[in-house]
Design brief:
The structure holds 3 protein chains of 3 kinds.
Chain A lengths: L4 E4 L3 H10 L3 E4 L5 H6 L7 E4 L8 E3 L5 E4 L4 H6 L1 H6 L1 H8 L4 H6 L2 H5 L51 H7 L3 E5 L5 E5 H4 L18 E7 L6 E7 L10 E7 L5 E6 L9 H5 L5 H8 L12 H25 L1
Parallel strand pairs in A: 1-3, 2-3
Antiparallel strand pairs in A: 4-5, 5-8, 6-7, 6-8, 9-10, 10-11
Helix pairs in contact in A: 5-8, 11-12
Chain B lengths: L10 H6 L12 H4 L10 E8 L2 E8 L4 H8 L18 E4 L2 E4 L12 E3 L1 H4 L7 H8 L9 H16 L18 H7 L10 H12 L4
Helix pairs in contact in B: 5-8
Chain C lengths: L1 E2 L23 H5 L17 E7 L5 E5 L3 H5 L3 E6 L21 E2 L5 E7 L2 H8 L5 E4 L6 H4 L12 E4 L2 H7 L2 E9 L11 E7 L2 E6 L4 H12 L6 E4 L15 H13 L3 E4 L2 H7 L6 E9 L5 E12 L20 E10 L13 H19 L3 H7 L18 H12 L12 E2 L2 E13 L5 E7 L5 E5 L8 H13 L6 E5 L15 H24 L7 E3 L2 E4 L2 E4 H6 L3 E9 L2 H4 L3 E13 L5 E11 L6 H20 L5 E2 L4 E2 L18 E5 L23 H13 L10 H4 L6
Parallel strand pairs in C: 1-25, 2-13, 11-12, 15-16, 20-21, 27-30
Antiparallel strand pairs in C: 2-6, 3-5, 3-7, 4-6, 8-16, 9-14, 10-11, 10-13, 14-15, 17-18, 18-26, 19-20, 19-25, 22-23, 23-24, 26-27, 28-29
Classes of the chains: A alpha+beta, B alpha+beta, C alpha+beta.
């Protein structure tokens, strides 16, 4: 870990301004991913701005009937919030499927969105990795890629985004609210927040220098059957092979995002449109243009089967509701 | 001062005289300029309470909470199994909540109340959970054990507080004390000796249900 | 004490302490975090500096240049050791690759430098300033590709046979010929390898974490070119080993070199991401099994061939061993072959040989039972043997495998198993039951101890035996308490110090029986001293309740003690009983799994092991050994795999997020039954090993249960959902 200076910010605007003005500065909140990466010198900030004191840790109703989730709301608290459990069940489920109890107690809403990939080559600084060291190459091509992506990937990077929460947020059409170095807030739809790797896999999102996430905004509740299904080898405390986050209405329409297959939580309009037709069609739409590797090609049938099971589960939930 | 540098340094600590407590002396000023600025450590003061005792340390900002406890305060009950949040051996309670102390900087804990395994109980005065682990043989090599016990205590509190888990059948009803709930919640603490089945029995005893 | 005739009645048979499910005597320390592990020993020596080791970034080749200037100039740095300034180093007898590499690199993450600084943070930052310039060379990294170039190893017992396998197999009406693979696995013990080293007057003391103190001491001396008496190792607590700490590793030797270089004690731990490629691992295997049977289920022919790889000078994974002993069949053949691989060093991991071999053999037996239309439990019972099948004049000392299988089947509800796979469905999951047999040999090796009765009538036991979670402290105390008739609270056990008498150490499930037998021998000597001092008759002396009774005389032990400390040192040595009788332990493993009908995710619902392992010294700690091994079996069956990058030549998933081992949620309630029958041919303790038996067959039982649930037979471990998906039943 490189040495760094450390400061505690006193307001979001001040934090953003300080970050923009300080070379190689980074915000730290939960630290559960950043410190992990700093120990390996995958991240080497010269200055850390501790944003934990900024009070961005409440969940408030919005005038539109949705929720505004403070950037520092811990994963445990977001998952346990009564409104989230009632109205955004797939978000609770996604959060609870991630990491461990200890990590969820520290990890924040904003930090979760900004997690880096778990690609084993990204994690070993001695190996080429275009995301970590632009232009160095990609060892995952032809390497160990069972966990990695098959759609949205590029010649330079096949990493996946590891978050569970973000997949649910994507299905919910969440919006990221930020504050810039100039003190001005802006909102970015999550759908537009993440960049695909292309030839610049080191650029993962749309944030500008110094820009700080203040909140994530959920639109009004969607109702419907809400499902988050995470498939993994180990029963808990494991990153996903594939995940499915879905909100299914009684008429079979709905919205669905998938994780574990792409550099960002993956949502495709055509896949949503295909929901009434069934899992195979939805999966085909999601995986349009897929470039599987030999050891991750299984994710294609796995995704289709997982979506089919999720849709069946939705029907079952709705059947139960009808009965009661 | 490098290292352990507690201001209210105890006589015991001085007598122990570990390298961590010794002054570093001059740091080769002649060659310093050859290194880039980022190699010069930043020292900071931080105050928190550990097991009810106020502690004030001057630390390299890079020091994890875990290393502050183990190397500077010589509270070695919290273990370093992976240093990357992948095993749970470093689990401690901060403000009553369990966290991985390896993935937290000590300087981020100004004013916090920290409880480690040493604060739960001592030989001869065991916390009920420690006694249950002992009686049910909920450990073998003992290295993951402090983390398991800190987690186990916190898990029962989390259940009491109604926090749901991945395996809770319903999100709108309070979670129950089922084995599935306990296992899921304990999954952030790896035991390679494989004492899981016995740990469940220990936890069920404390939770008030026969194993 | 020489043990060369079957044990007769002795004080251990009283079982006032031995055989009781006592809590661990060091348990209070462990549950309070007070037991000191290697890296935590602030108190043993002042002024400890911090070391940080870096490993090679290539698998094979050489370091062209390594610029240390930036690291040397970094704040707080006290010194750096590399191969260039380490001086001439030998290599420990038990090491394959050198522990300090450079300029030649033998494997990925081979240690190439240690940087010492005033603090851990400074050492780490300085170490990561070193960016060696390498010249990589091509290597062999793929066992499947290297298999055809494999050779017959020079040592060991690579070929065995009996009768005429080729003829019997050719004539067998029902045959099976299948290939199975097991992946490289990592010990992944929770405590990283760690050491503190300090020099004084040309001698080095290393507080470390090691299973085999005498091996470690000898190999430190060999590597550093020191006389053995100038080396002391101390390892009272070991945070797990599983074979990964059998041998001297880089932390130990680099701490010693670094401490010499900087003239201060140095502490160092391997970082978790480094452990997977720097240390040893269980090598992958490719195994071919051929079985021939009569229609009634009797095996006529059995052949097991195994291929594994290693660095030059490394050993084979002896995955065929159990096949020489487990089942009867007139025609027999085994073969072990070794390929050169440039992956990190392969070596022993818990139940080396059997763990991997039974993963294949016991699936083959399951497949053969199905071909024969037989119940797999019955098929195994039918092919039981009372003698060493390759040497029919040599009986087993004891063998209760049939009873294990029968009791297990009854207890587990085996009768409810559907013979046809894929038939039982509950909700969205298929349910299946599996069985496998287990065998692991009982190895006899000499072991010594020193016992002292202090003036205040405490009994102190000293031996270099280690407790790696196995319960050594407790069973040694139980042995001493039994022999001297003193309460457990008056017995103190000191382990892991190389200044103590040399024990069997912890490995190969030989620790418990041999180490307690060594303590037994020393206690026999102490009893003689006590009797002599009290002027009693040795022949009828009975030690119980803190007193010696002889000829109607009852004297308190405290009286003997008061006249001055008594010390006895002795050990156990073995005659030829192990040659005349095959000594093994046996198990029947049962597992029930569910397989998600949609995703093919596999979860274990129930597990049972019935074990035949001689006298059980402490049913509580022995049971823990078995459930722990069963847990490792679940990992081996379902998730553990070091993912080999075949181009770059290393294990790519080198941390605990990438290399998945079971967590709480993977493990159901586990049940263990011990037959608990003393074996007088094994030692005066009449005990046998049990720590590895729980792993032997456990993974195959799970794999067989997955087949029973789904009808999909996976022969390449781990059995993961991607291997099931295509063929899952609708």
């Amino acid at each position: 870990m490189k040495a760094f200076t450390y400061s505690r910010a006193s307001s979001p605007a001040e934090a953003a301004a300080e970050a923009a003005a300080t070379p190689n500065a980074k915000f730290i909140a939960g630290g559960t991913n950043l410190l992990d990466l700093m120990k390996l010198q995958i991240e080497t900030p010269a200055h850390l701005i501790d944003v934990n004191g900024l009070g961005l840790d409440s969940i408030e109703p919005t005038p539109e009937g949705g929720l505004r989730i403070g950037a520092l709301v811990r994963n445990t608290d977001l998952a346990a919030d009564a409104r989230v459990r009632r109205d955004y069940a797939l978000l609770s489920r996604a959060l609870l499927a991630g990491a461990s109890g200890q990590l969820r107690n520290k990890a924040t809403t904003a930090g979760n969105l900004l997690q880096r990939t778990r690609c084993v080559y990204f994690y070993d600084p001695r190996q080429p990795c275009n995301k970590r060291a632009p232009g160095s190459g990609c060892a995952a091509m032809g390497g160990v890629a069972r966990q990695l992506g098959l759609v949205g990937v590029s010649e330079s990077c096949i990493a996946t985004h590891p978050s569970d929460m973000a997949v649910a947020m994507m299905a919910l059409d969440a919006v990221v609210e930020t504050i810039g170095a100039d003190g001005i807030s802006r909102r970015i739809a999550l759908q537009d927040f993440y960049r695909l790797p292309g030839e610049t896999p080191q650029i993962e999102h749309d944030l500008r220098p110094g820009e700080l996430i203040q909140a994530v905004i959920l639109p009004p509740p969607l109702g419907g059957a809400q499902i988050y299904r995470k498939v993994r080898d180990r029963a808990s405390y494991a990153f996903a092979l594939v995940t499915v986050a879905a909100v299914i209405q009684p008429d079979g329409s709905g919205r669905l995002a998938a994780g574990g297959i792409a550099p960002r939580p993956w949502r495709v309009e055509a896949a949503d449109a295909a929901l009434p037709q069934g899992g195979a069609e939805v999966s085909a739409a999601l995986l349009d243009g897929a470039r599987p590797r030999p050891d991750n090609a299984f994710k294609q049938p796995l995704l289709a089967r997982t979506i089919t099971a999720a849709l069946a589960q939705a029907r079952e939930m709705q059947g139960k509701e009808m009965m009661s | 001062m490098i290292g352990g540098d507690e201001f209210d340094i105890s006589r015991r600590a001085v007598l122990l005289g570990g390298g961590a407590l010794a002054g570093a002396g001059p740091v080769r000023a002649a060659t310093r300029k050859e290194t880039d600025m980022q190699d010069s450590p930043t020292m900071m003061e931080v105050s928190f309470s550990v097991n009810g005792e106020a502690r004030r340390l001057r630390l390299d900002t890079r020091t994890s909470l875990l290393d502050a406890l183990r190397e500077h305060l010589q509270l070695t009950g919290s273990k370093k199994g992976c240093d990357h949040g992948q095993c749970g051996a470093c689990t401690v309670l901060v403000q009553g909540r369990r966290i991985n102390s390896c993935l937290s900087l000590a300087v981020m804990h100004e004013g916090d109340e920290i409880t480690t395994i040493e604060g739960l109980g001592q030989p001869g005065e065991l916390h009920p959970m420690q006694a249950a682990f002992l009686h049910h043989d909920g450990f073998q090599c003992g290295y993951c054990t402090p983390g398991q016990i800190c987690s186990a205590v916190a898990v029962l509190a989390e259940l009491q507080a109604g926090i749901p888990s991945h395996v809770s059948p319903s999100l709108t009803e309070a979670p129950t004390l089922s084995e599935a709930e306990l296992r899921e919640r304990m999954s952030g603490n790896i035991c390679r000796c494989g004492a899981y089945s016995n740990i469940m029995e220990a936890m069920r005893e404390i939770a008030g249900e026969p194993a | 004490m020489k043990f060369d005739a079957p044990a007769t009645t002795n004080p251990i048979d009283r079982q006032r302490f031995i055989g009781q499910p006592l809590d661990r005597i060091e348990g209070q320390l462990k549950v309070t975090g007070s037991a000191p592990y290697a890296y935590e020993r602030h108190e043993v020596v002042p002024d400890q500096a911090y070391g940080y080791i870096i490993g090679a970034g290539i698998a094979k080749g050489r370091i062209k240049a390594m610029d240390l200037d930036a690291a040397r100039a970094a704040p707080g740095v006290l010194g750096i050791v590399t191969a260039a300034n380490a001086g001439k180093l030998g290599k420990g007898k038990r090491n394959t690759a050198r522990l300090l590499g450079g300029p030649e690199i033998e494997h990925y993450d081979q240690a190439i430098a240690i940087v010492v600084a005033e603090s851990f943070e400074m050492a780490r930052a300085a170490a990561l300033l070193i960016r060696p310039d390498y010249e990589a060379q091509p290597g062999q990294f793929d066992l499947a590709a290297a298999q055809e170039r494999a050779v017959k190893p020079e040592s060991g017992d690579p070929d065995s046979g009996f009768g005429d396998f080729a003829r019997d197999y050719a004539q067998a009406p029902v045959t099976l010929d299948e290939t199975y693979t097991t992946p490289d696995q990592s010990h992944a013990m929770m405590e990283p390898h760690a050491s503190i080293a300090a020099w004084k007057d040309g001698a080095v003391t290393i507080w470390t974490s090691n299973q085999m103190i005498a091996w470690g001491k000898a190999d430190v001396a060999e590597t550093l070119g020191l006389p053995p008496e100038k080396v002391r190792l101390d390892s009272p607590y070991v945070g797990g080993g599983f074979g990964g700490k059998l041998f001297l590793r880089a932390d130990c030797i680099l701490a010693a070199l670094a401490a010499r270089e900087v003239g201060r004690p140095v502490k160092v731990a391997l970082t978790r991401p480094m452990i997977f490629n720097n240390t040893t691992h269980r090598p992958a295997t490719r195994q071919r099994i051929r079985l021939g049977a009569a229609p009634d289920g009797r095996l006529l022919a059995i052949a097991h061939e195994s291929w594994s790889g290693n660095l030059p000078g490394g050993a084979t994974e002896t995955a065929v061993h159990q096949t020489r002993l487990l089942y009867a069949a007139p025609g027999r053949l085994t073969r072990t072959r070794l390929a050169r691989l440039d992956l990190p060093e392969g070596n022993a991991m818990r139940a080396p040989g059997e763990a991997s071999g039974l993963m294949a053999l016991e699936v083959a037996m399951d497949e053969m039972a199905e071909r024969l239309g037989m119940d797999p439990v019955q098929f195994r019972i039918l092919n039981d043997t009372r003698v060493d099948p390759e040497n029919p004049g040599r009986p087993f000392s004891q063998r209760h495998l049939v009873e294990c299988l029968k009791r297990g089947a009854q207890r587990f509800g085996w009768a409810q198993r559907q013979a046809k796979p894929g038939q039982r469905r509950e909700g969205g999951a298929f349910i299946g039951l599996g069985v496998a047999a287990g065998i692991r040999n009982n190895l006899l090796t000499k072991s010594a101890a020193r016992v002292r009765l202090t003036r205040d009538c405490r009994l102190i036991v000293e031996t270099d035996m280690t407790d790696i979670g196995t319960g050594s402290y407790t069973i040694i105390a139980q042995t001493a308490a039994e022999m001297l008739g003193l309460p457990m609270a008056q017995v103190e056990v000191r382990l892991g110090d190389s200044d103590s008498p040399v024990s069997a150490g912890s490995g190969g499930q030989w620790g418990a029986n041999n180490a307690t037998a060594g303590v037994y021998a020393a206690c026999v000597g102490l009893r003689q001293l006590i009797v002599a001092r009290l002027g009693l008759n040795e022949a009828d002396a009975v030690f119980a309740d803190g007193r010696v009774q002889s000829g109607g005389n009852r004297t308190a032990l405290a009286q003997a003690a008061r006249q001055g400390e008594l010390v006895a040192e002795d050990g156990i040595e073995y005659g030829d009983l192990a040659e005349r009788y095959q000594q093994s332990t046996f198990a029947a493993h049962f597992a029930e799994v569910s397989v998600d009908a949609a995703t093919a995710e596999i979860r274990v619902r129930r597990m049972l092991a019935v074990c035949d392992a001689g006298r059980i010294l402490n049913p509580k700690s022995a049971r823990s050994q078995v459930i722990g091994a069963m847990t490792m079996g679940v990992g081996a069956a379902l998730m553990e795999e070091l993912a080999v990058d075949h181009q770059r030549g290393y294990f790519a998933n080198h941390d605990l997020a990438g290399y998945e081992v079971p967590v709480h949620a993977d493990i159901p309630h586990q049940e263990v039954v011990f037959l608990d029958e003393p074996d007088p041919l094994s030692s005066p303790m009449k005990a046998k090993g049990v720590g590895e038996l729980g792993l032997c067959g456990a993974a195959a039982a799970v794999a067989n249960a997955v087949y029973n649930a789904t009808g999909v037979r996976v022969r390449d471990y781990p059995v993961t959902l991607d291997k099931l998906l295509a063929a899952m039943p609708a």
